[in-house]
Structures are given as C-alpha cells and as structure tokens.
Amino acid sequence: MSVTRKTEIMIEREQLVLIVRTPMPEILCEECGRDVKMIEMKEASRLARISQREIFSRMGNDSIHFKETPLGSLFICFDSLVNDLRQSG
Fold it and tell me: Which of 36, 35, 37, 39 is nearest to 22 (CA)?
C-alpha cells in the first residue's frame, strides 16, 4: 500500500494598488536624488486615504517628500508616498 503525501504552500502577499486620475509631472525630488512623479496634495490625500494634515505630519518627519513651487503649489513625491503607505501598513 502506498502513501500519498500532499504539501500545501501558502504565500501571503500584500499588494498596494493606487489608481491615479490626474497626470503626474516628473520633478526633481531632492531627497530621492532623481526625477520622480509628483502629485498634488489633494490627490495624494485621496489616494492614500489619509488627511492632508496627516500628510503634513509625515512630511515633517521626512517619510513623505515634497516640492513647493515658486507660486506656492505643493507637490508630493509619489514614490515616497507609496513607500510610506507600505511601511505604515
């Protein structure tokens, strides 16, 4: 009589999916040291599902990078936003 063994392997994987509705310009991110896609604050807040105040807080501790234009518009580094969301779980 032969015995059949069955091995199950379960792989858990988190996936972060963000759907961006607005075009994202590529701007130099000083912290990343390269041109990256930048997104407006309001859109970043909507995508991340966190308040603009929370984004400002995370900008203050350098986990989210940003660039302010001479006219006062604020752009968020998309790469740092995604990395921050992954790390905060």
Answer: 39
Torsion over CA: 15, 47, 19, 40 (sign): negative
Q: Does pLDDT of 38 surpass 90?
A: yes
pLDDT, tens only, 40-79? 999 999 989 999 999 999 999 999 999 998 999 899 999 9
- Give the Cβ contact number of residue 44 at 10 Å: 23
Interacting residues of 48 by C-beta distance below 8 A, sequence separation 6+: 55, 81, 85
HSE (side-chain half, CA atoms, 13 Å) at 82: 13
Domain boundaries, the chain: 26-88
Architecture of domain 26-88: Orthogonal Bundle (1.10)
* Token duo for residue 45: 């807040």
